[in-house]
Structures are given as structure tokens and as C-alpha cells.
Amino acid sequence: MPPFFGVSEGPPIADPIGSERYVEGGEARNLTEISSRHGMQALVTRPREESQSLAAALALRDVGSVIEPMMEVHYCVAAALDLNAVQAILCTSANGVRALARVTGERGLHLLAVGETTASRALAEGFTSVASAGGAVTDLVRLAAARLRPQNGPLLHVASNIVSGDLVGALRARGFVIERRILYEARPIERLSAAALNALRGRTIDFAAFFSPRTAGIFVELAGSAGVAGCCRTITSLAISAAVDAVLTGLPWQDRRVAERPNQPALLDTLDVVLAERRRH
After folding, report:
1. pTM to 2 decimal places
2. What gap in Å lies between CA 118 and CA 100, rounded to an integer?
3. Which of 159, 161, 246, 256 gets the most CB atoms within 10 Å of its CB?
4. Percent share of the chain, pLDDT over 90
């Protein structure tokens, strides 16, 4: 069985924003605009903590950011976890890692992360035995099956109230005992902020980045209810996967692009292709 180590499958994505920025009981909504010398801007729909690292990567490309999280994170009040018999913890989001770190001081258990950003967050929170899958739940299932053995003990999936994919079912089918514990809720925002609406109506948004079908669906719904769906005609959408892109088809985008792999570096590679095309025209 391959050993665990710091991270695997490529270098982690830096996420310098710590969990202390979350307010107790929830995440304060905070739209931030970062200017660009060339006037291009991207609408960033990730939760605020993840948005900051993406905004920094966009700034290196002279693309400003309008940060408009589609969901607000609220931590659940949970009793301390009993991890004595647990073989490994599986985390499918950086927010799950933050929630886990709030309820346990244990940092030495094996932690399998769905992708590099989640793995990076785990290392930042002090977890010492972290491995990263390729960015999708199916990748995490394959990683767990390769690294772990059913006879070595149960698994724990740290999750929100809404999950994508059937991680628990897939691993149970492989003989594992696995429990899901809900440690946080990701609640959709009720409306787009005035600043985001002004940017959309003013046609100052060039790109819109989406990292989950759920956040894409929230934007589609809120853009329609706010009467700004037509503003997407001048925007190129950037989706982390085909599943995310499928949710966006109901809006009249100027163009839609899909990352080759379901992670932030691949989405940025897709943006680089679009930027290069624009420079040639």
C-alpha cells in the first residue's frame, strides 16, 4: 500500500486565509472588488475563503475580481468527535477541513482530500498525514480504495448538509464501514448584492467562474430573478467541470469554457487559453 505523505498528485494550491476569518455561527458576506490595470474583471462565486486565493491568481493575469459568494458557511454546533477507531478521515471541501479543525485537536490521523485545495487547507490547519485525490468524488473513491483497507477500521466523511456524489455509497460497496458527519451548512444567498448587480448591468464583468453545480444553479436562479440574465451576453463562463457547465446552459453567455480537470489550476489554464485568444484578435 503506498505510504501517506504531505500531499500527492501535484503541488497544493496556497490558501493563506485562515479559518479565524469566519465569524461565529456563519460567514459574513463580503463582496470585494480588486481592480485590474487592463479593465478585465471576473465574477468569483466561491465561498469567501477560497475566493481570496483565486482572486490573487487572477490578479497575476491582470484580471480583477468581483467576489460574490453564492453560499454562506455556517458551522454546526457539534460534540467532540470520537476518532479512536477511525482509520482515516475523508474531506470533500476546504470548508469541511475548517469545520473538522474546530471540533477536534487530533491532527495525526490519515486525511484524504478530494483535491489539492482541500489538501492545502488540511496542511494549513496542522494535519500531518494528508493525501490528495484528483478533484472529483470518484477520484477520492479510487484514492481511498488504493490507500486504505476495510479491515483496518471505519472511515469518517466530514461533510456539509448537501453533498455532491455518493462517496459513502461507493465506499460501502467496496466493503468499507463509513459514517458521514455533518459539521457545517452551506446556505445559498437570497439575492445578488447591489455591487454585483451594478457590475453586471454596467457590463464590467468579462468572466464568471463556477466551481460546483450548486453555486452555478444559485447564480442562474438569482440572475433570472434580478433581471440580469441578459447581461451574461458579454461574459464568458468558466466551469470547473462539464456537470457545472450543464447547469449554466440556461443563460445567454458570450462563450462557455470547461476546465480539462476539476480543479482550480485547470480552470486557470482554461482562462489562460481564452486570454491568449483575445490577445491574438
Report:
1. 0.77
2. 12
3. 159
4. 74
